Amino acid sequence: MLSDLQDARFRRASSLFASAHRGDPTLGPAGVPESVTYHEELVEYVKKLSKLQGQEPSEALLLAASCQHVRRWERPRRDWPEGLSGYKTWRASLNKFHAQVAEETMLEAGYDSEKDQELISRVKDLLMKRTLARPPLPSSLKDPEMHLFEDAICLVFLKLQFADFASKLSDEEKLVGIVRKTWAKMTSNGQKVVAEELVSALPSDLQAVIGKALS
User: Fold this and answer.
1) What is the C-alpha to C-alpha distance for residues 93 and 98, in angstroms, rounded to an integer?
2) CA torsion 14→144→103→101, rounded to 10°?
């Protein structure tokens, strides 16, 4: 339970992040900036997955979900070299950038650089995925909250971005491989949401891809 002061800071930080998202020049089908829709969905999935675990999401988790891709359009992929190495360098740079923006925004919202250092560090750790275990996932996770966050990120990808991503990739086998890798990163709770809520909403050809990937 947040105190009045904590709640005011949290609401201020959330508002600042939302304002940043509205600056995304890429608009979705309804004319809404893509960053707005992305983060709204991510926060909702964080809440849904937390509920499946019988708990409320932590302040750090909600803040991280509110800024996972904040101002990403300022660091376009084209500014980094082509190929897998360039892609990985770009992603690492993005994670650091988002963590930096998160800290700056939290301080602007009233969080204290000393008193709230543990909270700020936790938000940054989540954004930089410092404690994320690689597949195959162990039966006992060292940082379940980190993996809940990763589940939510994967769910947003499958709901909002997968169909468009698939339309640009002509190699079905490569697409099947990407689905397998995404599935392997997810916990059973995340996989349950995919199976129960997302697969049926996809076009039949993409349902077939997922079926092939998981067979």
Assistant:
1) 9
2) -80
Residue 171 contacts by C-beta under 8 Å, 6 or more apart in sequence?
A: none
Angle between helices 204-214 and 172-185 (to 10 degrees): 60
Rounded to whole angstroms, the Cα distance separating 164 from 61 reads: 28
pLDDT, tens digit, 9 for 90 and up, residues 6-45: 799 999 999 999 999 999 999 998 999 999 999 999 999 9
DSSP designation for 89: H
On the question of pLDDT at 3 being above 70, the answer is: no
- Compute the average pLDDT of residues 49-70: 97
Q: Cα–chain-centroid distance for residue 5?
A: 27
CA distance 22 to 45: 20
Give strand pairing partners of 33: 27
CA distance 180 to 102: 31
Q: Can you read off the two tokens belonging to residue 56?
A: 């409320």
Helices (H), 22-82: 34-52, 59-65
- CA 175 – CA 166 distance, rounded (Å): 7
Please state, rounded to an integer, the average pLDDT across all residues of the chain: 95
Give pLDDT tens digits for 174-189: 999 999 999 999 999 9
Q: Which two tokens stand for residue 148?
A: 């809940």
